[in-house]
Amino acid sequence: MNMKRGRPRNVQTQQAILTAAYDLLLDTGFAAVTVEKIAERAGVSKATIYKWWPNKAAVVMDGYLSAASSRLPLPDTGSVFGDIEEHAVSLARFLLSREGKIITEIIGEGQKDPGLKEAYQTRYFHPRRQEARQLLERGRQCGELREDVDSGLCTDLIYGPIFYRLLLTGEPLDDVYVRQLVAAAFAGIGERLP
Fold it and tell me: Cα–Cα distance between 86 and 42 in angstroms, integer?
């Protein structure tokens, strides 16, 4: 018989913790957030947080994702080109928003904090990458993309330049650029453009 140990998470307490972590992240930035401050703002003990999350990075990333993931829904326009274009444009817009700019701070902090790096990779980037791969795979299966298309490589081809501009070059990351980027990628991977 498989028995779960411990008490299940109280949904209201969990949401209070996630909201506190997200609010503190927006107010003070990742470096200034502590488990103590999250606990104080949520009205819980540090032990409650550590019972459910292994470290500050994990709870902060879950708070961030809880608040931000609804801003990046998975599109279904009827074509893989339209889906990827809408997904990439929405991502770029989000990354330039107040909430989105936090991800650049988190990436920077992750270079010094292996726990944070692991948290943002597993909780944020890998799931977003999987979403894009699913969209591309759907396009390959319905014949919009070449049969030999590697969805992982195409995801890097399309989304890598967005982060390159965001994190390194500082060049404009606007809708026009993202649409041109997606069109250029599809010129090489698509059977036909819409």
Answer: 36
Q: Between these two residues, 175 and 137, which has the higher pLDDT value?
A: 175
Query: Which value, in Å, is the radius of gyration of the alpha carbons in the chain?
Result: 19
pTM score over 0.85: no
Secondary structure of the chain as H, E, C letters:
CCCCCCCCCCHHHHHHHHHHHHHHHHHHCHHHCCHHHHHHHHCCCHHHHHHHCCCHHHHHHHHHHHHHHHHCCCCCCCCHHHHHHHHHHHHHHHHHCHHHHHHHHHHHHHCCCHHHHHHHHHHHHHHHHHHHHHHHHHHHHCCCECCCCCHHHHHHHHHHHHHHHHHHHCCCCCHHHHHHHHHHHHHHHECCCC
Instruction: State the pLDDT confidence band at 107, using cuts at 50, 70 and 90.
Output: confident
Give which of 1, 30, 158 is closest to 92, Cα–Cα: 158
In the chain, the percentage of residues whose pLDDT exceeds 70 is 92
Q: Kindly report, residue by residue over 86-102, the tens digit of the pLDDT.
A: 999 998 998 898 888 88
